[in-house]
Amino acid sequence: MEEAIPIIAIFLGLPWIILHYITRWKTAATITSDDEVLLEELYNLAKRLDERMDTVERLVASDNPEFKPARIMHDMEIDNEPLRELDRLLAERGDRK
């Protein structure tokens, strides 16, 4: 009987440990609803900060005609495409809820 205990521990304990950590790994890899809310808040904050930066650059450019902004130019079509795509995806997600 004493020889059976390590064998039982191997056949029951080892699969349990493996399955436990596989489950932990899969749950850690998913985005929770709290994560989605945080990402949406961060997106909105970044959008507001971008608009503020555009305003500051326009004000500086109006005072100093030699000013060349180092950032992406305001309202260039190629720059706005990814933002429109993200806005569309957020709107679709909002429709499904």
TrEMBL record:
Keyword list, A-Z: Membrane, Transmembrane, Transmembrane helix
Domain of life according to the entry: Bacteria
GO biological process, one term: phage shock
Matching InterPro entries: Phageshock_PspB
Membrane-spanning ranges: 6-23
Protein name, per record: Envelope stress response membrane protein PspB
UniProt source species: Croceibacterium salegens
